[in-house]
TrEMBL record:
UniProt cross-references to SUPFAM superfamilies, sorted A to Z: alpha/beta-Hydrolases, E set domains
Source domain of life: Bacteria
Chaperone in keyword set: no
Signal peptide residues on this chain, from the entry's feature table: 1-21
Keywords, sorted A to Z: Signal
Protein name: Esterase
Positions of transmembrane segments: none
Natural source organism: Arachidicoccus ginsenosidivorans
CDD domains in alphabetical order: E_set_Esterase_N
InterPro entries noted in UniProt: AB_hydrolase_fold, Esterase-like, Ig-like_fold, Ig_E-set, Mycobacterial_A85_antigen
Amino acid sequence: MKLKKIFFFALAMMAGQIAWGQNTIVEDFQSSTLNQPGQQYPQVNSQGYARFKIKAPKASSVRVSLGLGGSGGTLLTKGADGFFIGTTAGPMDEGFHYYHLSIDGGIFNDPGALNFYGSTRWESGIEIPAHDRDFYALKNVPHGNVQQILFPSKSTNSQRRAFVYTPPGYEKNTAKKYPVLYLQHGWGEDETAWSNQGHANLIMDNLIAEGNTIPFLIVMTYGMTNELKWGHMKDFKIDGFQKVLVDELIPYIDAHFRTVADRGHRAMAGLSMGGMETHAITLNNPDVFSYYALLSGGVYTPEELKGKTKPALIFISCGSREKPDGVKGAVAQLKKAGYNAVSYISQNTAHEFLTWRRSLHELAPMLFQNN
Protein backbone atom coordinates (compact mmCIF):
# COMPACT_ATOMS: atom_id res chain seq x y z
CA MET A 1 0.00 0.00 0.00
CA LYS A 2 2.83 2.33 0.81
CA LEU A 3 4.40 1.79 -2.64
CA LYS A 4 1.05 2.52 -4.32
CA LYS A 5 0.70 5.76 -2.37
CA ILE A 6 4.20 6.83 -3.39
CA PHE A 7 3.48 5.92 -7.01
CA PHE A 8 0.23 7.90 -7.16
CA PHE A 9 1.84 10.82 -5.35
CA ALA A 10 4.61 10.89 -7.97
CA LEU A 11 2.03 10.85 -10.78
CA ALA A 12 0.17 13.74 -9.19
CA MET A 13 3.38 15.73 -8.85
CA MET A 14 4.25 15.11 -12.53
CA ALA A 15 0.77 16.18 -13.64
CA GLY A 16 1.04 19.32 -11.55
CA GLN A 17 4.43 20.14 -13.03
CA ILE A 18 3.10 19.69 -16.58
CA ALA A 19 0.08 21.91 -15.88
CA TRP A 20 2.30 24.48 -14.22
CA GLY A 21 4.68 24.40 -17.20
CA GLN A 22 1.83 25.02 -19.60
CA ASN A 23 0.88 28.21 -17.72
CA THR A 24 4.40 29.46 -17.16
CA ILE A 25 5.20 32.72 -18.91
CA VAL A 26 8.55 32.57 -20.69
CA GLU A 27 10.68 35.56 -19.73
CA ASP A 28 12.03 36.34 -23.19
CA PHE A 29 10.12 39.60 -23.62
CA GLN A 30 11.28 42.07 -26.25
CA SER A 31 10.07 45.53 -27.19
CA SER A 32 7.14 45.61 -29.60
CA THR A 33 8.07 46.52 -33.18
CA LEU A 34 5.46 49.30 -32.98
CA ASN A 35 7.05 51.16 -30.08
CA GLN A 36 8.02 54.81 -30.13
CA PRO A 37 11.78 55.28 -30.77
CA GLY A 38 13.81 54.33 -27.71
CA GLN A 39 10.86 52.99 -25.70
CA GLN A 40 11.21 49.57 -24.06
CA TYR A 41 7.51 48.99 -23.32
CA PRO A 42 5.16 47.49 -24.30
CA GLN A 43 6.91 44.17 -24.75
CA VAL A 44 5.96 40.84 -26.32
CA ASN A 45 7.32 37.35 -25.62
CA SER A 46 7.65 34.26 -27.81
CA GLN A 47 4.32 32.88 -26.56
CA GLY A 48 2.34 35.97 -27.55
CA TYR A 49 1.93 37.49 -24.10
CA ALA A 50 2.13 41.29 -23.91
CA ARG A 51 3.58 43.24 -20.99
CA PHE A 52 2.91 46.90 -20.27
CA LYS A 53 4.66 49.41 -18.01
CA ILE A 54 3.19 52.86 -17.44
CA LYS A 55 4.52 55.70 -15.29
CA ALA A 56 1.59 57.27 -13.40
CA PRO A 57 2.72 57.98 -9.82
CA LYS A 58 -0.44 59.92 -8.88
CA ALA A 59 -2.88 57.40 -10.37
CA SER A 60 -4.71 54.75 -8.38
CA SER A 61 -5.78 52.49 -11.27
CA VAL A 62 -4.38 51.72 -14.74
CA ARG A 63 -5.99 49.22 -17.09
CA VAL A 64 -4.98 48.27 -20.63
CA SER A 65 -8.00 47.82 -22.92
CA LEU A 66 -7.18 45.76 -26.01
CA GLY A 67 -9.03 45.45 -29.30
CA LEU A 68 -11.22 47.64 -31.48
CA GLY A 69 -13.31 49.63 -29.05
CA GLY A 70 -11.24 48.29 -26.13
CA SER A 71 -13.19 46.59 -23.33
CA GLY A 72 -12.10 44.58 -20.31
CA GLY A 73 -8.36 44.29 -20.55
CA THR A 74 -5.42 43.91 -18.21
CA LEU A 75 -5.30 45.59 -14.80
CA LEU A 76 -1.76 46.77 -14.02
CA THR A 77 -0.15 46.70 -10.56
CA LYS A 78 1.40 49.81 -9.07
CA GLY A 79 4.95 49.63 -7.75
CA ALA A 80 6.71 51.77 -5.17
CA ASP A 81 8.50 53.62 -7.99
CA GLY A 82 5.20 54.94 -9.41
CA PHE A 83 5.23 52.58 -12.39
CA PHE A 84 2.25 50.32 -13.14
CA ILE A 85 3.19 46.99 -14.70
CA GLY A 86 1.25 43.94 -15.85
CA THR A 87 1.08 41.10 -18.34
CA THR A 88 -1.92 39.87 -20.29
CA ALA A 89 -3.73 36.90 -18.70
CA GLY A 90 -3.02 34.78 -21.77
CA PRO A 91 -1.31 34.89 -25.14
CA MET A 92 -2.86 37.21 -27.72
CA ASP A 93 -3.73 36.39 -31.31
CA GLU A 94 -0.90 36.91 -33.75
CA GLY A 95 -0.86 40.18 -35.64
CA PHE A 96 -1.87 43.77 -34.99
CA HIS A 97 -4.03 45.00 -32.09
CA TYR A 98 -5.38 48.40 -31.09
CA TYR A 99 -5.37 49.32 -27.40
CA HIS A 100 -5.60 52.25 -25.01
CA LEU A 101 -5.13 52.96 -21.32
CA SER A 102 -7.84 53.65 -18.78
CA ILE A 103 -6.23 55.70 -16.01
CA ASP A 104 -8.59 56.51 -13.13
CA GLY A 105 -11.48 56.45 -15.57
CA GLY A 106 -9.86 58.62 -18.26
CA ILE A 107 -8.84 57.24 -21.66
CA PHE A 108 -5.25 57.79 -22.80
CA ASN A 109 -2.79 56.39 -25.31
CA ASP A 110 0.36 54.57 -24.26
CA PRO A 111 3.30 57.02 -24.57
CA GLY A 112 5.54 54.07 -25.41
CA ALA A 113 3.65 52.97 -28.52
CA LEU A 114 2.93 54.34 -31.97
CA ASN A 115 -0.63 55.41 -32.73
CA PHE A 116 -3.01 54.16 -35.43
CA TYR A 117 -6.43 55.45 -36.41
CA GLY A 118 -9.12 53.03 -35.18
CA SER A 119 -12.26 53.14 -33.02
CA THR A 120 -12.83 56.65 -34.47
CA ARG A 121 -9.71 57.90 -32.68
CA TRP A 122 -5.95 57.48 -32.71
CA GLU A 123 -5.26 54.33 -30.68
CA SER A 124 -2.02 52.76 -29.51
CA GLY A 125 -0.91 49.71 -31.46
CA ILE A 126 0.95 46.52 -30.63
CA GLU A 127 2.16 43.77 -32.95
CA ILE A 128 2.28 40.11 -31.90
CA PRO A 129 4.74 38.51 -34.36
CA ALA A 130 2.91 36.03 -36.60
CA HIS A 131 4.47 32.74 -37.64
CA ASP A 132 3.70 33.60 -41.29
CA ARG A 133 4.68 37.29 -41.15
CA ASP A 134 7.19 36.91 -43.97
CA PHE A 135 4.57 37.76 -46.62
CA TYR A 136 4.15 41.30 -45.25
CA ALA A 137 7.74 41.83 -44.09
CA LEU A 138 9.84 44.75 -45.32
CA LYS A 139 12.34 43.06 -47.65
CA ASN A 140 15.12 44.01 -50.00
CA VAL A 141 12.91 43.97 -53.09
CA PRO A 142 11.77 46.73 -55.48
CA HIS A 143 9.19 48.86 -53.71
CA GLY A 144 6.18 50.74 -54.93
CA ASN A 145 5.02 54.08 -53.60
CA VAL A 146 2.05 55.13 -51.48
CA GLN A 147 1.15 58.74 -52.19
CA GLN A 148 -1.50 61.02 -50.80
CA ILE A 149 -3.84 62.70 -53.26
CA LEU A 150 -6.52 65.34 -52.76
CA PHE A 151 -9.49 65.21 -55.12
CA PRO A 152 -12.47 67.55 -55.51
CA SER A 153 -15.88 66.32 -54.38
CA LYS A 154 -18.83 68.42 -55.49
CA SER A 155 -21.28 66.15 -53.73
CA THR A 156 -19.71 66.89 -50.33
CA ASN A 157 -18.50 70.39 -51.22
CA SER A 158 -14.99 69.51 -50.09
CA GLN A 159 -11.53 68.37 -51.05
CA ARG A 160 -11.23 64.73 -50.07
CA ARG A 161 -8.17 62.58 -49.45
CA ALA A 162 -7.11 59.21 -50.80
CA PHE A 163 -3.91 57.18 -50.81
CA VAL A 164 -2.73 55.48 -53.99
CA TYR A 165 -0.30 52.59 -54.15
CA THR A 166 1.63 52.46 -57.43
CA PRO A 167 3.71 49.31 -58.04
CA PRO A 168 7.49 49.22 -58.57
CA GLY A 169 8.44 50.62 -61.97
CA TYR A 170 5.31 52.75 -62.37
CA GLU A 171 7.32 55.99 -62.67
CA LYS A 172 9.78 54.58 -65.24
CA ASN A 173 7.54 52.62 -67.59
CA THR A 174 5.43 55.57 -68.68
CA ALA A 175 3.73 53.70 -71.51
CA LYS A 176 2.21 50.98 -69.32
CA LYS A 177 -1.33 51.19 -67.97
CA TYR A 178 -2.54 49.34 -64.88
CA PRO A 179 -5.69 47.80 -63.39
CA VAL A 180 -7.01 49.29 -60.15
CA LEU A 181 -8.25 47.84 -56.85
CA TYR A 182 -10.40 50.16 -54.73
CA LEU A 183 -9.77 48.94 -51.19
CA GLN A 184 -11.87 50.05 -48.21
CA HIS A 185 -11.13 50.18 -44.48
CA GLY A 186 -13.43 49.15 -41.63
CA TRP A 187 -15.65 51.01 -39.19
CA GLY A 188 -13.79 53.52 -37.03
CA GLU A 189 -10.75 53.53 -39.33
CA ASP A 190 -9.78 55.78 -42.22
CA GLU A 191 -7.83 55.78 -45.48
CA THR A 192 -4.51 55.26 -43.64
CA ALA A 193 -5.50 51.84 -42.28
CA TRP A 194 -4.61 49.55 -45.17
CA SER A 195 -1.09 50.99 -45.47
CA ASN A 196 -0.31 51.44 -41.77
CA GLN A 197 -2.10 48.56 -40.09
CA GLY A 198 -2.56 46.30 -43.10
CA HIS A 199 0.83 46.65 -44.86
CA ALA A 200 -0.98 46.43 -48.21
CA ASN A 201 1.98 48.01 -50.00
CA LEU A 202 4.49 45.51 -48.59
CA ILE A 203 2.18 42.59 -49.38
CA MET A 204 2.01 43.80 -52.99
CA ASP A 205 5.75 44.51 -53.24
CA ASN A 206 6.57 40.97 -52.10
CA LEU A 207 4.00 39.30 -54.34
CA ILE A 208 5.21 41.25 -57.36
CA ALA A 209 8.86 40.45 -56.58
CA GLU A 210 7.96 36.75 -56.39
CA GLY A 211 6.09 36.94 -59.69
CA ASN A 212 2.87 35.87 -57.99
CA THR A 213 0.60 38.76 -58.96
CA ILE A 214 -0.05 41.16 -61.80
CA PRO A 215 1.06 44.67 -60.77
CA PHE A 216 -1.90 46.96 -60.15
CA LEU A 217 -2.79 50.19 -58.39
CA ILE A 218 -4.58 50.25 -55.03
CA VAL A 219 -6.73 53.25 -54.13
CA MET A 220 -7.74 53.76 -50.49
CA THR A 221 -10.12 56.52 -49.41
CA TYR A 222 -12.26 57.45 -46.43
CA GLY A 223 -15.54 55.51 -46.50
CA MET A 224 -17.67 58.07 -44.67
CA THR A 225 -18.33 55.50 -41.97
CA ASN A 226 -17.04 57.16 -38.81
CA GLU A 227 -20.14 59.32 -38.42
CA LEU A 228 -22.00 56.15 -37.40
CA LYS A 229 -21.89 55.05 -33.79
CA TRP A 230 -21.08 51.44 -33.00
CA GLY A 231 -24.22 49.32 -33.00
CA HIS A 232 -26.04 51.44 -35.59
CA MET A 233 -24.77 49.80 -38.77
CA LYS A 234 -28.33 49.23 -40.01
CA ASP A 235 -28.71 53.00 -40.27
CA PHE A 236 -25.86 53.25 -42.76
CA LYS A 237 -26.79 54.67 -46.17
CA ILE A 238 -24.50 53.94 -49.12
CA ASP A 239 -25.65 56.77 -51.39
CA GLY A 240 -23.21 59.43 -50.21
CA PHE A 241 -20.06 57.36 -50.39
CA GLN A 242 -21.17 55.64 -53.58
CA LYS A 243 -21.40 59.02 -55.32
CA VAL A 244 -17.97 60.05 -54.04
CA LEU A 245 -16.37 56.79 -55.17
CA VAL A 246 -18.09 56.11 -58.49
CA ASP A 247 -18.81 59.62 -59.78
CA GLU A 248 -15.85 61.55 -58.38
CA LEU A 249 -12.87 59.45 -57.26
CA ILE A 250 -12.79 56.86 -60.06
CA PRO A 251 -12.89 59.52 -62.82
CA TYR A 252 -10.17 61.46 -60.98
CA ILE A 253 -7.93 58.37 -60.73
CA ASP A 254 -8.46 57.49 -64.40
CA ALA A 255 -7.60 61.07 -65.40
CA HIS A 256 -4.48 61.44 -63.23
CA PHE A 257 -2.97 57.93 -63.24
CA ARG A 258 -2.20 55.48 -66.03
CA THR A 259 -5.11 53.10 -65.60
CA VAL A 260 -6.99 50.77 -67.88
CA ALA A 261 -10.27 52.58 -67.41
CA ASP A 262 -12.83 49.86 -67.92
CA ARG A 263 -14.86 47.40 -65.89
CA GLY A 264 -12.61 44.43 -66.67
CA HIS A 265 -9.63 46.12 -65.05
CA ARG A 266 -11.38 47.44 -61.95
CA ALA A 267 -11.92 45.68 -58.59
CA MET A 268 -13.44 46.64 -55.26
CA ALA A 269 -12.78 45.08 -51.87
CA GLY A 270 -13.29 46.02 -48.26
CA LEU A 271 -12.87 44.73 -44.74
CA SER A 272 -15.76 44.65 -42.25
CA MET A 273 -17.74 47.89 -42.78
CA GLY A 274 -15.78 48.37 -46.00
CA GLY A 275 -17.10 44.98 -47.06
CA MET A 276 -20.64 46.20 -46.50
CA GLU A 277 -19.85 49.19 -48.71
CA THR A 278 -18.29 46.94 -51.34
CA HIS A 279 -21.33 44.66 -51.31
CA ALA A 280 -23.77 47.52 -51.87
CA ILE A 281 -21.71 49.47 -54.41
CA THR A 282 -20.82 46.48 -56.59
CA LEU A 283 -24.43 45.33 -56.69
CA ASN A 284 -25.54 48.86 -57.61
CA ASN A 285 -22.76 49.28 -60.19
CA PRO A 286 -22.12 45.92 -61.87
CA ASP A 287 -20.87 47.67 -65.02
CA VAL A 288 -18.17 49.55 -63.07
CA PHE A 289 -16.42 46.68 -61.25
CA SER A 290 -15.58 43.17 -62.41
CA TYR A 291 -13.91 41.76 -59.27
CA TYR A 292 -15.65 41.74 -55.87
CA ALA A 293 -14.11 40.88 -52.48
CA LEU A 294 -15.66 40.90 -49.01
CA LEU A 295 -13.17 40.46 -46.14
CA SER A 296 -15.13 39.75 -42.95
CA GLY A 297 -17.80 41.88 -44.58
CA GLY A 298 -20.77 39.68 -45.35
CA VAL A 299 -21.60 37.51 -48.36
CA TYR A 300 -23.25 37.62 -51.76
CA THR A 301 -26.21 35.44 -52.77
CA PRO A 302 -27.09 34.20 -56.27
CA GLU A 303 -30.50 35.87 -55.96
CA GLU A 304 -29.11 39.39 -55.55
CA LEU A 305 -26.66 38.89 -58.42
CA LYS A 306 -29.22 37.43 -60.81
CA GLY A 307 -29.82 39.46 -63.97
CA LYS A 308 -26.73 41.67 -63.42
CA THR A 309 -23.49 41.73 -65.41
CA LYS A 310 -21.55 38.72 -64.18
CA PRO A 311 -18.42 39.45 -62.11
CA ALA A 312 -15.14 37.82 -63.12
CA LEU A 313 -14.48 36.83 -59.49
CA ILE A 314 -16.22 36.87 -56.13
CA PHE A 315 -13.85 36.45 -53.17
CA ILE A 316 -15.22 36.07 -49.64
CA SER A 317 -13.09 35.58 -46.53
CA CYS A 318 -13.08 35.70 -42.74
CA GLY A 319 -11.16 34.42 -39.75
CA SER A 320 -11.69 30.90 -38.44
CA ARG A 321 -12.99 32.48 -35.20
CA GLU A 322 -15.65 34.45 -37.04
CA LYS A 323 -18.32 32.66 -39.14
CA PRO A 324 -16.39 30.44 -41.55
CA ASP A 325 -19.31 28.09 -42.21
CA GLY A 326 -21.38 31.00 -43.47
CA VAL A 327 -18.60 32.05 -45.85
CA LYS A 328 -18.07 28.53 -47.15
CA GLY A 329 -21.79 27.95 -47.55
CA ALA A 330 -22.29 31.20 -49.45
CA VAL A 331 -19.44 30.42 -51.85
CA ALA A 332 -20.78 26.90 -52.42
CA GLN A 333 -24.14 28.37 -53.42
CA LEU A 334 -22.49 30.89 -55.73
CA LYS A 335 -20.46 28.15 -57.43
CA LYS A 336 -23.59 26.06 -57.85
CA ALA A 337 -25.23 29.04 -59.56
CA GLY A 338 -22.32 29.31 -62.01
CA TYR A 339 -20.24 32.10 -60.47
CA ASN A 340 -16.46 32.08 -60.14
CA ALA A 341 -16.41 32.28 -56.36
CA VAL A 342 -13.60 31.61 -53.88
CA SER A 343 -13.63 31.35 -50.09
CA TYR A 344 -10.66 31.86 -47.81
CA ILE A 345 -10.52 31.20 -44.06
CA SER A 346 -7.65 32.66 -42.02
CA GLN A 347 -6.72 30.10 -39.37
CA ASN A 348 -6.70 31.02 -35.67
CA THR A 349 -7.71 34.65 -36.22
CA ALA A 350 -10.88 36.64 -35.61
CA HIS A 351 -12.08 40.09 -36.73
CA GLU A 352 -8.58 41.53 -36.90
CA PHE A 353 -5.90 42.72 -39.28
CA LEU A 354 -4.00 39.47 -39.63
CA THR A 355 -7.20 38.00 -41.11
CA TRP A 356 -7.33 40.86 -43.62
CA ARG A 357 -3.60 40.87 -44.41
CA ARG A 358 -3.82 37.18 -45.22
CA SER A 359 -6.99 37.75 -47.22
CA LEU A 360 -5.35 40.42 -49.39
CA HIS A 361 -2.36 38.13 -49.89
CA GLU A 362 -4.71 35.40 -51.16
CA LEU A 363 -6.86 37.77 -53.20
CA ALA A 364 -4.21 39.76 -55.09
CA PRO A 365 -2.91 36.90 -57.28
CA MET A 366 -6.50 36.16 -58.39
CA LEU A 367 -7.23 39.68 -59.60
CA PHE A 368 -7.18 40.60 -63.28
CA GLN A 369 -6.09 37.14 -64.39
CA ASN A 370 -8.66 37.17 -67.19
CA ASN A 371 -6.78 40.11 -68.70
